[in-house]
Amino acid sequence: MDFKNTFSKLKQTAVDTASTVAQTAKExxxxxxxxxxxxxxxxxxxxxxxxxxxxxxxxxxEIGRKLCEKHENGLYIDxxxxxxxxxxxxxxxxxxxxxxKIQELKNKDNTPT
Length: 113
Known about the structure:
Layout lengths: L2 H70 L6 H32 L3
Helix pairs in contact: 1-2
């Protein structure tokens, strides 16, 4: 085999190798780009889900508040909910007592001796 032929084959092998490496890098970067796009989309959707769940909890809380107010005012509510509303009323009373005690202590501290 002569030197020119060997050099030509080596050159072609180098070109083929470089082409393969370039193609692999291109495909790899496309995969990374696709994965990144998917991760961004997943993150956006997860944030949206959390936001919607938070809104839903707020609506549930408002429904519960309205039901308990009806019960406090002597209006009919589903008997299954009476016990829970009675508990809320008890909690409200306890909170009021604690707030009154706090205010009493604050007023006591402001009274000159």
